[in-house]
Write a structure and sequence with these properties.
By secondary structure, the protein is of the alpha/beta class. It is built from 14 helices and 5 strands. A 5-stranded mixed β-sheet has the order 1-2-3-4-5, with helices on both faces. A hairpin with a 5-residue loop joins strand 2 (93-97) and strand 3 (103-108). Helix 2 (19-31) packs parallel to helix 4 (57-76). The protein is globular. The model has no long low-confidence stretch (mean pLDDT 92).
Length: 297
């Protein structure tokens, strides 16, 4: 299954089924994928398609699909994993080792390539510390090139709270190289990287980006040379660049469509984009509540 077809399925299911039923159908599809097909989705899932409306049912289901893909990644690495049901104040995925006595929670992140500005709250690193509870490790999975390349609060929070700042690109490499946890291969060293890095980081450097050190650790687990590792990331960059050009094309085509709108079509589209009818409905609902309120009770 290619990514375009997967995106199409997400959009179709978001319109035809309840959210829970749609999520289960996507889980059945993803959990039945062969590893090669999973890697195709892992390489693309970190970027939300521009054709999916912001705050839409499609976007919500896409986000759930990323959780499901994340859980499947852990399965392919030899862990038991499950996607948690929708609930507040909780991580998306929990996984347990089959051979070693540890468990972890994980959270999947996907961003639009059109959204440049991100702050520490977008990554929810401090929440990951809270969500860990009785589990041993916390893993945040984001697109690698969306992590800050300079000093950031997320790095100090990750070191102090032992949250692993992982990426879809890392998972892709681990799957491609057939890395798997066994009785003799304990992946706990991987999930525990931030704690180890924190012990070797001074207070002055605690906000410094440590992805280079993390890359070296991943490279050692993969057993590849510096050049092979760099070549892999060049492939990732080229793939992202190609994807960005496709997303630009989507907006360029939409611009052409808008330029051909009649006055009536333009007005209707603007009213819809500003959600004016929804705002009016909310205010009317509030008025009705006020009229029904009895101050004597």
């Amino acid at each position: 299954m290619n990514f375009s077809r997967f995106k199409e399925l997400v959009c179709i299911l978001s319109k035809e089924e309840s959210f829970q039923v749609s999520s289960e159908k996507i889980k059945d599809i993803v959990f039945s994928l062969e590893k090669e097909d999973l890697i195709v989705l892992v390489d693309e899932i970190g970027a939300i398609p521009e054709s999916i409306d912001h705050d839409s049912t499609e976007e919500k289901l896409y986000s759930k699909a990323s959780d499901i893909i994340l859980a499947k990644c852990f399965m392919e690495l030899g862990l038991k994993a499950e996607v948690l049901q929708e609930r507040a104040d909780s991580a998306d995925v929990v996984a347990k080792s089959k051979y070693h006595n540890y468990s972890l929670i994980a959270d999947a992140k996907a961003f639009r390539v059109s959204r440049a500005a991100k702050n520490q709250k977008d990554f929810k690193v401090e929440s990951m510390v809270h969500w860990r509870k009785d589990n041993d490790y916390s893993i945040l999975c984001c697109p690698y090139f969306q992590y800050p390349r300079v000093k950031s609060q997320i790095y100090s929070s990750a070191l102090q709270g032992n949250v692993l700042l992982f990426s879809w690109e890392y998972f892709s490499l681990l799957l491609q190289k057939n890395i798997k946890e066994t009785e003799n291969n304990n992946l706990a060293q991987l999930w525990n990287f931030s704690k180890i890095q924190g012990q070797n980081t001074t207070v002055d450097n605690i906000k410094r980006c440590f992805l280079k050190e993390q890359n070296k650790m991943i490279q050692n687990i993969l057993g590849v040379s510096d050049k092979e590792f760099e070549d892999c990331f060049d492939i990732f960059k080229n793939r992202i660049s190609t994807r960005c050009k496709k997303e630009i094309l989507y907006w360029e085509n939409l611009k052409k469509d808008i330029e051909n709108y009649s006055k009536e079509q333009a007005i209707t589209a603007l009213i819809k984009s500003l959600k004016l009818n929804e705002k009016i409905s909310v205010i009317n609902s509030y008025i009705n509540q006020l009229e029904a309120y009895d101050s004597c009770r």
